[in-house]
């Protein structure tokens, strides 16, 4: 077999080299996802700052102490924190290369997420029914914007989680799926951290102050 490099040199052609494998840095996806999370931090920081400015602008309407059902919110918080624990179990199963265990714990995590969203939607519907919709005051506008944005993130996280379960069932724990599970883990725990801020800054301070 004639060496391609020697042939190109003999013909005076510039040398060309071809990669036999796809060029994909091992840490490229994770770095990109960290950059995405940082941009999400800026979004939530802006919403927290907006609520900090407008959170006492009641315009003669109801206050947080009059509206917030703290036991309901505490139950919602417990559901989201439990979902972080179950996602941790899914990561442990993935490290042991157990596909069924990974999928099972991911589905349990999704159920906790659905429970969280259901209680949040119930809270929103109750507030609007009581005449405390986002148009009532600047306080409620900033409240619905902050809590609603977090709820949307949880919703899309559940969609991502279900899609990932189908990919795991079809392809197993291939490196690409392991990387996706790790990215979703960071996203899910990030939402938990944000919600702890919401629970403390919005609900607890709104009721106690």
UniProtKB/TrEMBL annotation:
Keyword terms: Cell membrane, Electron transport, Membrane, Oxidoreductase, Transmembrane, Transmembrane helix, Transport
Residues covered by the Heme-copper oxidase subunit III family profile domain: 1-207
PROSITE patterns, per database record: COX3
Keyword Electron transport belongs to the record: yes
GO biological process, alphabetically ordered: aerobic electron transport chain
Transmembrane segments: 33-53, 73-92, 104-122, 142-166, 187-208
InterPro entries: Cyt_c/ubiquinol_Oxase_su3, Cyt_c_oxidase-like_su3, Cyt_c_oxidase_su3-like_sf, Cyt_c_oxidase_su3_a-hlx, Cyt_c_ubiqinol_oxidase_su3, Ubiquinol_oxase_su3_dom
GO cellular component terms attached to this protein's record: plasma membrane
Membrane-protein topology: Multi-pass membrane protein
Location (main, coarse): membrane
Keyword Transcription: no
Annotated localization: Cell membrane
Pfam family, one: COX3
Source superkingdom: Bacteria
GO molecular function: cytochrome bo3 ubiquinol oxidase activity; cytochrome-c oxidase activity
Coiled coil: none
Role this protein plays: Cytochrome bo(3) ubiquinol terminal oxidase is the component of the aerobic respiratory chain of E.coli that predominates when cells are grown at high aeration. Has proton pump activity across the membrane in addition to electron transfer, pumping 2 protons/electron.
Subunit structure: Heterooctamer of two A chains, two B chains, two C chains and two D chains.
Record protein name field: Cytochrome bo(3) ubiquinol oxidase subunit 3
């Amino acid at each position: 077999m004639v060496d391609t490099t020697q042939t190109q040199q003999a013909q005076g052609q510039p040398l060309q080299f071809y990669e036999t494998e796809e060029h994909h840095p091992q840490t490229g996806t994770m770095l990109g996802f960290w950059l995405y999370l940082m941009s999400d931090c800026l979004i939530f920081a802006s919403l927290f700052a907006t609520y900090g400015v407008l959170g006492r602008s009641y315009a003669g309407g109801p206050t947080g102490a009059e509206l917030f059902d703290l036991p309901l919110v505490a139950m919602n918080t417990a559901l989201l924190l439990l979902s972080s624990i179950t996602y941790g179990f899914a990561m442990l199963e993935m490290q042991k290369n157990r596909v069924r265990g990974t999928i099972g714990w991911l589905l349990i995590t999704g159920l906790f997420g659905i429970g969280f969203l259901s209680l949040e939607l119930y809270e929103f519907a109750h507030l609007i029914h009581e005449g405390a919709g986002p148009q009532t005051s600047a306080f409620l506008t900033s409240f619905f914007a902050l809590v609603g944005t977090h709820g949307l993130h949880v919703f899309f996280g559940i969609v991502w989680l279900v899609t990932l379960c189908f990919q795991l069932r079809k392809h197993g724990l291939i490196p690409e799926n392991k990387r996706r599970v790790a990215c979703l883990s960071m996203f899910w725990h990030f939402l938990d951290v944000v919600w702890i801020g919401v629970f403390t800054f919005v609900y607890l301070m709104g009721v106690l102050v």
